[in-house]
Amino acid sequence: MVLVFAIWAMSGSATAQDTEVTGTIIDPSGEPVPGVNILEQGTSNGTITDLDGNYTLTVSSPDATLKFSFIGFEPQTIALNGRSQLDITLQEELTGLDEVVVIGYGAQTEKEMTSAITTLKTEDLVKTPSSNAMQSLQGKVAGVQIVSKGAPGASPTVRVRGIGSFEGGGAPLYVVDGMFFDNIDFLNSNDIKTLSVLKDASASAIYGARASNGVVLIETNSGEYEQEAEIVYDGYYGVQNPQNVLQMANSQQFVQYVNETGSAPDREFVDNAMQFYGRSRLDPSIPAVNTDWYNEIMSPAPIQNHTLTFSGGSTKTRYSVGGSYFSQDGLLNETRNEYERVNIRANIDSKVKEWITVGGNFTFSTAKQFIGSDAAWFNAYFAVPILPKYDEEFGASPVPLSNAQRLGYRGRQNPFYPLLYNDSRNKVNKINGNLHAELTFIPDKLTFRSAYNYKLNMINARNVNFAYNDGVLDPLSGISRSNQTYFDQIIDNYLTYKDFFGDHGITATLGQSFRSETYEVLSGNRNDLDPNPTFGNEELWYLNNGQANDINTVSDGGSRIFYLSFFGRLAYNYKEKYLLYATYRQDNYNKFQVDSEDFFTLGAGWVATEEEFFDVKGIDFLKFRASWGQLGNDGINPSVGQPTLQSTNNAFNDVRVPGFRLDPTYDLIDKIETTEETNFGVTAKFFQNRLSLEADYYIRNTQSLAVTVLQPLFRGSVRRSVGEIQNKGLEVSLNWENQVSEDFSYFIGGNFATLQNTVKGLGGPEYLNSGSAEFRQRSIVGQPYQAFYGYEVAGVFQNEADIANSGYSEQFLSENDLVPGDFMFKDQNGDGLINDLDRVVLGSYLPDLTYGGNLGFRYKNLDFSVLIQGQSGHSILNRKRGEMIFTNDTNIDADLATNLWRGEGTSNKYPSAAGLRKGWNQNFSNYFVEDGSFFRVQNVRMTYSLLNKEVMGVIMPETRITLTAERPLTIFNYNGFNPEVDNGIDRQTYPIPAVYTLGLNVKF
């Protein structure tokens, strides 16, 4: 901040020298433009053109810079460079149809595109205070699901049009300036110029074997040619505030619950608490202690980001250089739980000759992440409220934490043990760069581009457990360390030919790409360090300090994979009315038992508004699109293997005969996972381009999925390329923008996307199990991927008559000792029994519907915007409640404690307190599976611009002050902190906070 204001002060100390400038401003047709606003940059000095487009302005220096702006035209900033006469031609402002959109290995205008692509710019990304730019997409891009994470530095889960792999995940491919990445946690949002989501196969297929889950294509800032040198500071400071904190049973509710269970041991534990810690003055029947564990372990935490950028350009060279600092503390108390990142980047391009441009970019990112123990969230949910944080008499050391075992409980429960006695840290250094050259063989027609892209990622992970005494046990110290190194290289070479002849336009690309990926990891762990680690001797936290007689477990591994690819693209249009698009890519690699794969795509478009017969008032542009294409997914585990012969013995006529038998239990991945996608879309603009529409319907079939199957006749399971998943849905985006006057404009828009995810085949079996046996997930042919699978609760038995009329057989009722307050599971097949045949699909964690909306306005120097988003049709497994299967002497959440069945008519949703501990009610059912739908006010942002203001005699630079509220309100019914759980299983999920920031942007 000091640097920012020092630059400002120096910028206002220049010596003035008055100069008169005159000129005429015309439009592209040569007509004068009256009312054009002309401003001397960095001052409040300005004027407007008269009816003939003429102007006269006295400026402070012959080298002053003038800014020209008028509604409907592109603003221009021009340096006088000693001139006293400056005539300019304003260019009409580009509509969205004329804007250039970056695609794989090239660019197209929106009007030419036949694919489903959504592009966001810097101003869309920086609105969200987050360590990862992908968080900014939440609610903004139809068909893209962003699942937030609350832990410092954690990247969100990103899914483009669902999940299409059993083991390869659903993350898209990130392409940053030509380099491939699994995530973009190293990028600062301010460093991104454009971020394009390539959603359909037509857009993504040119990337081949990595593009099955969509592609996120990113251009970083590069400066502009003929741009005056510019310095920009952008930063914010804010606070993360826990929201929707789950209410747990307090001491009064907990004691009531314990009494209702009828458990004598649990009642004794409560009595012990009163004996050790005293009785409540308000109610002597309950202990005096009433601990809110969530309140104890977390509190608001700061977040901040600061970016300084230097950019500009001459006629020959453009550059952008900058650095940033990001810091985020976690919500957890009394532990290191934070993320800190420093970025340095440089981007430069130079037109060395008229026929060659060379350039490069470089990004260095160093980050340190301390990972708070997730066990704290788990323990805080189960810790009984009648236990204090500290217990000076029990003897725990070095910190006198309490231990629930003193009261008689089986576990110590206190969540501060994992917080105080564990330290987990990742150091991540990433170096990414690109060197490129572009040769022009035929001006504006034929170019050749060669690029070398590289990335070096080094991850140093360390986890330390401290020695301590919990009053019962003396856990030893321990340390584990690992060093991971990734070094990837990509060399791209491609020709691009672009030409127009008569009514025909053609763009052709032909290229070759080589990719090398190297991975190495070295890890080890030891226990019982000497001296024992403490926060005061961190310099001794190394494996060498483990005991000599300890087993030193070391792991050393790695891999190296090569790809050689060839690709081509052809885009053709006739009168910008009929559009054709095709791509081809061949990937050759050494990762699987198949060594090459081919990927094709075809696209077509018809611009109806270009037809002579089309004359519909209010429709400015109407284009119909259709495409088909193939994509690959190489994100699955490789496998190499072959049948083997195993020795065996058989008996013939009571004589042992040794021999061999064929063992075919080996993995065979003989096909890459391949997606075939068909997309139908429409792009339209209405009412003088104020209203825009994008709509797409897609069907995405992914085949040859790697699936684990059982071998017939032989024991064991193997992986085969036999699975198939289908995703299909409708995506619609509708936006209205209107410039009412020079001072006032507004916008309003929305989007939604549907998703139907279905398992289409498993190579023979009807289902594939996943998850734990107690909380079964099952991928069933005809059902969603990894759906929750269990019993359907029809209600709670209210009386003996309900039990008698349940339809269960008398023998079954007798064997299961059912009583009022127990669940009544639906007998799906009506056989009078509840068994495996009665289990059904209970829900999927993939939402059927995602949506977003935005509105805002600009009035003079004030900008205001609101973003909403939400999703529905998905389920969450409340795994925390399910823990009672394994241990029942714990706390329960307040909703459950309040609404337990306590007699006829009291509840038809929850069982009785005694029933909670009964095996019958602990069967996996939709009691544990809850609706995850939510509505959220995602972002509220207000910006005030200080332009041409004078402070203490100095003209202020262009300054913007911003207030932002991220996730200030979330509405949902799920019994948890938040309804965003990436895999649908909520066991110890880090809460997602609301974030409130104050930001400053200064441009010199």
The biggest sheet amounts to: 22 strands, antiparallel, barrel
Structural class: mainly beta
| Radius of gyration from CA coordinates | 33 Å
Q: Report the end-to-end length measured between terminal Cα atoms.
A: 14 Å
Total beta strand runs: 51
Question: What proportion of the residues is helical, as a percent range?
Answer: under 10%
Can you walk me through this structure?
The chain is mainly beta. It contains 13 helices and 51 strands. The strands form 11 sheets. The protein has a 22-stranded antiparallel β-barrel. A 5-stranded mixed sheet has the order 10-15-16-13-14. A 4-stranded antiparallel sheet has the order 3-2-5-6, with no helix packed on it. β2 (37-40) and β3 (46-48) form a beta hairpin. The longest helix is centred in the first third of the chain and has 14 residues, at 264-277. The protein is globular.
Give a nutshell description of this structure.
InterPro entries: CarboxyPept-like_regulatory, Plug_dom, Plug_dom_sf, TonB-dep_OMP_SusC/RagA, TonB-dep_OMP_SusC/RagA_CS, TonB-dep_rcpt-like. The protein contains 13 helices and 51 strands.
Map the helices and strands.
Elements: H1 2-11, E1 19-26, E2 37-40, E3 46-48, E4 54-59, E5 65-69, E6 76-79, E7 88-89, E8 100-103, E9 106-109, E10 117-121, H2 122-125, E11 144-147, E12 157-160, E13 173-176, E14 179-181, E15 192-198, H3 201-204, E16 215-220, E17 227-241, H4 251-261, H5 264-277, H6 293-297, E18 301-313, E19 317-329, E20 338-353, E21 356-370, H7 375-382, H8 416-420, E22 422-442, E23 446-465, E24 478-501, E25 504-527, E26 553-574, E27 578-589, E28 596-607, E29 619-633, E30 644-652, E31 655-663, E32 673-686, E33 691-710, E34 717-739, E35 744-754, E36 756-762, E37 767-771, E38 776-780, E39 787-790, E40 793-796, H9 800-804, H10 810-816, E41 823-825, E42 840-843, E43 849-859, E44 862-872, E45 875-877, H11 879-882, H12 894-899, H13 913-916, E46 929-931, E47 934-946, E48 950-951, E49 954-955, E50 958-972, E51 994-1003
Parallel strand pairs: 1-7, 13-16
Antiparallel strand pairs: 1-4, 2-3, 2-5, 5-6, 8-9, 10-15, 11-12, 13-14, 15-16, 17-18, 17-51, 18-19, 19-20, 20-21, 21-22, 22-23, 23-24, 24-25, 25-26, 26-27, 27-28, 28-29, 29-32, 30-31, 32-33, 33-34, 34-35, 34-36, 35-43, 37-38, 38-39, 39-42, 40-41, 43-44, 44-47, 45-46, 47-50, 48-49, 50-51
Protein name: SusC/RagA family TonB-linked outer membrane protein
Subcellular location: Cell outer membrane
Signal peptide: 1-16
